[in-house]
Amino acid sequence: MPVFGAVDFDAHEQVTFFHDKETGLKAIIAIHNTNRGPALGGCRIWPYPDEQQAITDVLRLSRGMTYKAAMANLPFGGGKAVVIADSHKDKSPALLRAFGKCVEKLDGCYITAEDVGTSVDDMVFIRETTSHVVGLPGGSGDPSPFTAIGVYDAICSAVLYRLKKSTLKGVTVAVQGLGHVGYHLCKLLAESGAQLIVTDIETELLERVVKEFKAESVSPEKIYGVEADVFAPCALGAIINDVTLPQFKCVIIAGSANNQLECHAHGEILAEKEILYAPDYVVNAGGLIDVYYEGPNYDLDVVRAHVRGIHDTLLDVFHKAEELKISTSEAADLIAEERFRSISHPEIAVSL
Asked: Cα(169)–Cα(173) distance, rounded to whole angstroms?
């Protein structure tokens, strides 16, 4: 299991493996870069088939958080945690407390939050053994609605840039994944007059969205090839790959899933196919922005204003890509890298 030699290692500052015999906890916490501040990233609980896949995921997710925080102009670096377990069967208060102890051992270098397989309520148990956790009930709470707002604004930005439309009325959007973010996104899209094509591996979620928003449903394997203006991936990553690329019939890809490109070259292929790609770590920053403002002075209007900035940030990315004749993924990387590599610990107060 190579770590330093892994394709996705990308000069990570720290990768720590944790094990708790009593609860069976197997966790990996990766800290990619702390130039802008402590590493912030959620805790993902997932039944990885093998440890190498867990390592790959945590490295990719951690790196993405560095870029996300930089593009959102937040005083954070990038980090992530993965717990190798089935959240439906293995998750327990004891397991979460054990994970909190792992976070505490990093002495503030890493701050955790919810992610796939964890919830706002789970953060309460983690908080019992570490103070380095955000997204708590009574704090900023569930960040999913703000993530969805950011994705919605990203779609509006891309539609304006590519389709020259100032509204989403009549625009067809294919949404993959109807969890917390996907559901809220569908609600916003339906309210704006967009036509929805949706899919999810959980039938109950699919039926709910079809009923509430008059959406058309398709099987998970068919979502890539549907006729749509926008494809919005809101499930797991690496869904833009050699298999799916030939299937796309959309002109825009903008969704909340992390690490949508299986590799860098796929961003270039999208550009060659004239599919406008909204880089995921710009699009899905709404939740991160939300938890940044958590604290006694939490103000919804301030959070909304910051999240709404995703619209203009994406336009900057699109224009830079056009100007330099490069892919949008490369353009976003250039902007983010300039921000997190040129400074160390900006003088911005972190309200946690």
From this structure: 11
101 is catalytic: no
Helix (H, G, I), strand (E, B) or coil at 335: helix
Residue of 80, 187, 320, 325 marked catalytic: 80
In angstroms, the CA 105 to CA 129 distance is 10
Question: For the chain, what percent of residues have pLDDT higher than 90?
Answer: 85
Both tokens assigned to 80: 């992530």
Give the pair of three-digit tokens for residue 189. Answer: 């899209």
Give the contacts of 304 (CB within 8 A, at least 6 positions apart).
146, 149
pLDDT, average across residues 157-184: 97
In degrees to the nearest 10, what's the CA dihedral of 106, 75, 304, 100?
0
Question: Which domains can be identified in the chain, with CATH numbers?
Answer: 14-68+77-127 (3.40.50.10860), 144-339 (3.40.50.720)
Longest dimension (CA), the chain: 58
Residue 63 to residues 78, 169, 217, 310, 332, Cα–Cα distance (Å): 6, 36, 34, 19, 14
The residues, any chain, with a CB within 8 Å of residue 216's CB and separated by 6 or more, are 195, 196, 197, 198, 210
How many C-beta neighbours within 10 Å does residue 127 have? 19
At 21-32, the pLDDT tens digits run 999 999 999 999
pLDDT > 70 fraction of the chain, expressed in percent and rounded? 96
pLDDT > 90? residue 107: yes
pLDDT, tens digit (0-9, with 9 covering 90-100), for 110-148: 999 988 899 989 999 999 999 999 988 876 667 889 999
